[in-house]
Write a structure and sequence with these properties.
The chain is of the alpha/beta class. It has two domains: 271 residues, Aldehyde Dehydrogenase, Chain A, domain 1 (3-Layer(aba) Sandwich), CATH 3.40.605.10; 184 residues, 3-Layer(aba) Sandwich (Aldehyde Dehydrogenase, Chain A, domain 2), CATH 3.40.309. The protein is 38% helix and 24% strand. It contains 16 helices and 25 strands. Strand 6 and strand 7 form a beta hairpin. The protein is globular. The model has no long low-confidence stretch (mean pLDDT 95).
Length: 498
């Protein structure tokens, strides 16, 4: 065991809590560190530091805030490689994938750098006689982010830069499986000139989250994770008077029509299903392909999937790395086995795979299941692994019906050369983010990210304009200035007016 990851509170490392949790290198399967788990006392300390820092940071000028954000952006960009390697060591994804994650984080930081424009209010002169009305948005106070293991850089950066730019202070509770990126990010904030107490980190588990979601001085909670946990956090947080945005589970569908560029569609299906070993909420794990081109499409997908190089994430030309934990690997492979027993055809089998010399790592190779039906666990549940599920449909209407019947509504994609079909698809499905010949339709930072149905719980999506709205509250001022009584002198006389 190499290291212990602790908490970061008020500009310094703080140790302690109610125990530790192991940190593994998924490629080798060996324990390389441990994470301290914050108890209620540690949470109190972090929130108290953030509350105190809010008094001054909320009153800081927009010029000062943007100066810190620009400096943070430069530091984040300059340290992309080092941060990516930290992620790869603890998560297992390949370095190029981890670097791409940092790139998406940079997009949000750059958006937040424009906060002076985003916080501009409205002004109405002479709304009534001598009455002017204006509005503006103010920060909330202490905001909390609870983030998942699959994007230990990107998901915190969906939240913290926008919250901080708006004048709030922030407490991050990262995943305990890959915690080191959080402290690296905290150090970058400090080097950028962010005052102590504005950004804090508490490592932990569900007990830590319980202390945060009920803490009286926390004003807002942002969450990315599973639907059951998101629903519980939303219910508890709102019951304790907090704003909550919970980005939850997904089962994203892609529909491939007969007029699609099949080679293009197959390449994108493989990239979206197996990138980051399928451990992302915007993966495309389900493809509904029309019958008349299904065999040709599947043959192309299998050929491309076989060419994926699965290796240790540090390998320069690796395409896909390991699974985050042994338990996740076992769950994924059990789901494949259940589908096969239920009648699915395993056209590419990744069960039992491991690169040479990595026999103890947490590995599953790219897997493709054909002739899947909607009652199979592989279709119903979010596998969160390198498994592509293929269903065959008669036409676009049947593909749309599949998506409409699914409880999730995070992302979806269509591959077609027909504008009419694409428009019908976009307007017909209850999904928050849609790609037209784009397999992973994650919005750019100046739009907002979020799903529908069981993929999102709350009212305001994350980052972008809705993120600014979430991290601020509106204030409206109606003002009238009356003229005081005055005495005017003229022609040797005086007269008082009012």
């Amino acid at each position: 065991m190499d290291y212990t990851v602790s908490h970061y509170i008020d500009g310094r490392i703080v140790t302690g809590g109610h125990g530790t949790s192991p940190v593994f290198n998924p490629s080798t399967g060996e324990q390389i560190g441990q994470t301290e788990l914050a108890d209620a006392a540690i949470v109190d300390q972090a929130v108290a530091a953030a509350k105190l820092a809010f008094e001054s940071w909320s009153q800081s000028s927009l010029g000062r805030r943007t100066a810190v954000l620009f400096a943070f952006r430069e530091l984040l960009a300059a340290n992309t490689r080092e941060l990516a390697e930290i992620v790869t060591r603890e998560h297992g994804k390949v370095v190029s994938d981890a670097a791409g994650e940092v790139g998406r984080a940079l997009d949000v930081v750059e958006f937040a750098c424009g906060i002076p424009q985003l916080l501009k209010g409205e002004y109405t002169m002479q709304a009534s006689t001598d009455l002017d009305v204006y509005s503006f948005r103010e920060p909330l106070g202490v905001c909390v982010g609870v983030t998942p293991f699959n994007f230990p850089v990107m998901c915190p950066m969906w939240m913290a830069p926008v919250a901080i730019a708006c004048g709030n202070t922030f407490v991050l509770k990262p995943a305990k499986a890959d915690p080191s990126a959080s402290l690296f990010i905290a150090d970058l904030w400090a080097k950028a000139g962010l005052p102590d107490g504005v950004f804090n980190v508490v490592q932990g588990d569900r007990h830590t989250v319980a202390a945060l979601e009920t803490h009286p001085d926390v004003r807002a909670l942002s969450f990315v994770g599973s639907t059951p946990v998101g629903r519980e956090l939303h219910d508890i947080g709102t019951a304790h008077g907090k704003r909550v945005q919970a980005l939850c589970g997904a089962k994203n569908h892609g529909v491939v029509l007969a007029d699609a560029d099949l080679d293009f569609a197959a390449s994108n299906a493989v990239a979206s299903a197996f990138g980051a070993a399928g451990e992302r909420c915007m993966a495309l794990p389900v493809i509904a392909v029309v019958d008349e081109v299904a065999d040709d499409f599947l043959a192309s997908v299998v050929e491309k999937a076989k060419a994926i190089k699965v290796a240790d994430g540090m390998t320069p030309d690796a395409d896909m790395g390991a699974i985050i934990t042994r338990a996740d690997r076992d769950r994924i492979e059990a789901t494949i086995t259940q589908a096969e027993a239920a009648g699915a055809r395993v056209v590419l089998d990744g069960r039992g795979y491991h690169p040479d010399g990595h026999e103890n790592g947490f590995w599953t190779g790219p897997t493709i299941l054909d002739h899947v039906t909607t009652d199979m666990r592989a279709y119903v549940e979010e596998i969160f692994g390198p498994v592509l599920v293929v269903l065959r449909v008669r036409d676009l209407d049947e593909g749309i019906a599949l998506i409409r019947a699914n409880p999730y509504g995070n992302g979806a994609a269509i591959f077609t050369s027909s504008g009419e079909a694409a428009r019908r698809f976009v307007r017909s499905i209850p999904v928050g983010m849609i790609g037209v010949n784009v397999p992973i339709p994650v919005p750019v930072a100046y739009h907002s990210f979020g799903g529908w149905q069981d993929s999102f719980i709350g009212e305001t999506h994350i980052y972008g304009p809705e993120g600014v709205k979430f991290f601020t509250q509106a204030k409206v001022v109606s003002q009238r200035w009356t003229q005081p009584a005055a005495t005017f002198h003229f022609a040797g006389a005086s007269q008082t007016t009012s």
